[in-house]
Design a protein that fits this description.
By secondary structure, the protein is α/β, with parallel strands linked by helices. It has 9 helices and 7 strands, in the order βαβαβαβααβαβαβαα. It starts with 7 loop residues before the first strand and ends in a 5-residue tail after the last helix. The chain binds NADP nicotinamide-adenine-dinucleotide phosphate. The site of NADP nicotinamide-adenine-dinucleotide phosphate has 28 residues, from helix 1 and helix 5.
């Protein structure tokens, strides 16, 4: 979160996500205004009511579908009408199993839209509004899966890699205009997305991820691995020579 004393607004993209809900609860407690953007209005209404009970200045549910760019402009307009500091946190993403994608290659398009191109296009539209105010933060949630293409989920990984590269360039651009961009790379988190996958290594919770995000925002970090152990783990995984890596099933 930015540390300016002005009125804070957070656009929360993918507000029905488990991690987004934990994030919404955390910013609600600070009295910010939250714009809850997602596909399921019933769920967004419930989150808005919960945020109001926790002390938000206001909570506005609004439709956002990463695959329908026509839903983007109304959110930008709503955000632009708010005074003070604008911030945006992106939690949108989908992870069909690699087996499902192998059986239906059309799932590639949706996976890339949900986790990369939809959010990137939205942020591209939002960027001028934030630049004009010379403040605010963007939190983009990628994944450790984007650090190297693995046999088990390389389409999702490719989408997250694309999004992380996009965020790196956006940071380079917006950093010159006073806007902070934080790339978050979680390992496995106990959420709807990981239901049915069984126990995963270094599994964490949505609340722990959100606490790490706020810590990274305070320190104006560029990239956050959460849990922290994923930074050395992924550093090693990225160093494995390709002739060896291509035979591994990690
Ligand atoms: N859980 C993990 O282990 C893990 C690890 C690394 C990174 N991440 C990332 O963390 C973020 C949050 O995920 P989560 O773990 O909280 O899982 P989640 O509860 O399944 O959240 C995924 C969110 O993405 C939304 N979404 C998917 N496609 C969309 C579309 N076309 N338009 C709008 N919204 C769409 C879903 O909306 P609906 O509710 O409408 O389906 C849901 O709100 C995702 O970007 C995910 O890739 C998660």
């Amino acid at each position: 979160m930015t540390d300016t004393p002005t009125h804070q607004t957070w656009i929360i993209l993918g507000a029905s996500s488990t991690i987004a809900k934990a994030f919404t609860r955390s910013v609600a407690a600070t009295g910010a205004h939250v714009i809850l953007a997602g596909r399921r209005m019933d769920d967004l209404n419930a989150s808005a009511a919960d945020a109001k009970a926790r002390g938000v200045a206001d909570a506005t549910p609004i439709i956002f579908d990463a695959r329908i760019p026509d839903t983007f402009q109304a959110i930008i307009d709503l955000a632009a009408a708010q005074s003070g500091t604008l911030n945006c946190a992106v939690f949108v993403g989908s992870m069909p199993t690699q087996d499902a994608i192998d059986a239906d290659p059309a799932l590639v398009d949706g996976t890339i839209s949900d986790s990369f191109t939809g959010p990137a296009r939205f942020l591209q539209m939002l960027a001028p509004v934030m630049m004009a105010r010379s403040c605010g933060s963007i939190v983009g949630v990628g994944s450790v899966a984007g650090d190297r293409g693995r046999v088990g989920n390389y389409v999702y990984g490719a989408a997250k890699a694309g999004f992380a590269t996009y965020l790196s360039g956006l940071r380079n651009h917006l950093g010159r205009h006073g806007v902070h961009v934080l790339t978050v790379k979680p390992g496995p988190v106990d959420t709807a997305m990981t239901q049915g996958l069984g126990q995963q290594p270094f599994m964490t919770t949505a609340d722990a991820v959100v606490a790490d995000i706020h810590n990274a925002l305070r320190k104006k970090r560029n990239t956050l691995y959460t849990r922290w152990i994923w930074w050395p783990v992924m550093t090693i995984i990225k160093l494995i020579p390709e002739p060896i890596f291509k035979k591994m099933s990690i």
